[in-house]
């Protein structure tokens, strides 16, 4: 994707950063599957999302991954770390599609960003929105079936009708066992909702897939 200077200026304006000296900012591109942040590692950049989809995971004590949010496709990455004064990533983020961000070097811009009141207000709204959505999703996820969560994840992660995620990663992402995920995937294939093609799956009946996905996940 060709990102124009006008698009970058628009994002800076959106986050009230147009008056700051941002000469050291960098345009960062991540390929599908590429790691953007690693939980527990030091963050080099504060990130403004330009385009693409990524998934956010946090490691549990037993070594399994728990998906915190099915997607991030806009907004800010690093807001929690910035406001808590930590340079250590509190979650792992990996690209689902090509993911493009504007990176602001943390060490140079940390204090300048905190002194920008309109930007800090944006951060506050972003954190409040994430908290509300996370709380709501925690409750709803506990009430929905594995099939519903899987259908939602397929719709989120698909690229032009193709679902590329491995069953191992998918099971971690939806909070189900590998065996349970495998069984539901086979059921969706038998029902004609998806179709297996070599090592990937293709959406065969998008309308039915949408019908099996709770409205909440489509918001």
From TrEMBL:
Database matches in InterPro entries: cNMP-bd_dom, cNMP-bd_dom_sf, Env_Response_Regulators, HTH_CRP, RmlC-like_jellyroll
Keywords noted in UniProt: DNA-binding, Transcription, Transcription regulation
A Pfam family this chain is assigned to: cNMP_binding
Keyword Transcription: yes
Every Cyclic nucleotide-binding domain range: 30-113
Limits of the HTH crp-type domain: 144-207
SMART domains: cNMP
One GO CC term, this protein: cytosol
Domain of life where this protein originates: Bacteria
PANTHER family: CRP FAMILY TRANSCRIPTIONAL REGULATORY PROTEIN, REGULATORY PROTEIN YEIL
Name under which the protein is recorded: CRP/FNR family putative post-exponential-phase nitrogen-starvation transcriptional regulator
